[in-house]
Amino acid sequence: MRTIDDRIVHELNTTIPTASFVGKVDPGQTCKELYESLMDAHTKRERIIKNCISQTSAVVKTLKEEREKAPEDAALLKQLRKEQTKLKLMQSELNVEEVVNDRSWKVFNERCRIHYKPPKSQ
Fold first, then answer.
1. Where are the membrane-spanning stretches (predicted)?
2. pLDDT at 60 over 80
């Protein structure tokens, strides 16, 4: 799901013309389309990660409640630890997502600031 972020530099280099090729491509439209693609990708990924966090949090809560009822159950403890680890990984994925998004917006703004001004939401 991060393909657009992974390839943003290549995308900008191949679609935003240098000064000598300015007449052949509309950089404003290209930057607008890229902006919309980035916003869509970032929104979808954030929603999916948060949904996973929410579901895993519910599982952890349920397992904790079961653990209180059966504190000696080793299998239950193992499952709880596994789900807690998964939850921590998903939460750290939100931090990774923030770094990836920041990098993409920085590159986008460096190349497209002359050609396209995004709405104030970003």
1. none
2. yes
